[in-house]
Predict the structure.
Amino acid sequence: MQSPLAKILLKIFANGFYRAHAGMLLFAAFVMFGMVEPSQLLGYHSTLMLAFIGNPLMMLVVFAVWLLYTFKCWHFVAGQVFALHQQFLFYSSSAYQKQKQFVAWFILQTAVAMPVLAYGLIAVGVGLKHGFYLGALAVLIYLVFIIAISAWFYMRLINQLIDGSSQSIVLKLTKSWKKPYFSLYIYHVFDKLKLKYVITKGISYLIITGVFLMFADVSHDLRVAGIALLAIAVAHSVLIFDERQFEETFLIFSRTLPYSRLQLFFSFLGVYFALLLPEAIWLFVRFLPLMAVGLLVFALSLILLFHSLLYRFGLNMERYMTWILGLFIVLFWVVMFRLIWGLLCVNLLAAYLVFYTQYYKNLPYVPPTED
């Protein structure tokens, strides 16, 4: 029987996770099952499961993909935990014993990881049937491990005390520095959102590694880099949402400052360039300078487009993520048709037009509804 805490967590996080990521999960299901002839579906997946259970290198690739999904879960839950309307969890959940908290978070992660768990457990059964006992055991241990470490991560996150009086080392070291307007959110990230930033960079690393391993035979194809950068832009969607929330919460006065909309648009370009510095370094290490610059601008154009959409739709995470994932599917196919440079121009133009027309329109914050 589920505890009251587990029921609350499932209602808040599991339901919200599947609503926010329905598009991504449907797309993944289409790639995994819809692109295979129905008559060959069973044999195809049996062969695939045996391939990664019996091959350590393939198993590592699959484990990396599952870890990427786990980081996505962390990304979502961490973002929701710190939302203003979820602050009661810091006090109500900490009233439970640590063991009961761990069990509740374990149940939650099991729920949100159900697509991975279902496929993994079926693979374990297939492996046992064909005598791959060590491989099946390794898969089972790994699945339990990522769920347990996720439960520990959530429990540690929720039990951190909120102390608004303490100042982080970042602000202490830079208190005498001049802080341009565009840098304010950067300081906020390294002061209050360090965990989200680290998780996002971890997801970026796994995306880069996974995409280039998956397409190792055509890794120099521009489309591979385009797909990786598109996925990286989506991975930054929560930080983009937080930037808009920070702007509406702490920088609402900025709309009275003598900045043109073009100046403000370029200030946001500076914000996201700073956030993408690790990815920018990777681009300049891997590609020729001119190509690296083009790909970096492509990534920034995607992020600026995602940012500008929030002026149109308001701070509604559920609606925002639905649009982000819908755009991901559309833009993925545009990249596949080698239209990346044209897409760069369209992204920048669309981002600026939406920003220009919507910036001075006041859209109230609309918290996601709970079922």
The first helix runs from residue 4 to 20. Residues 168-371 form one domain. Confidence is low (pLDDT under 50) at residues 161-165, 363-371.
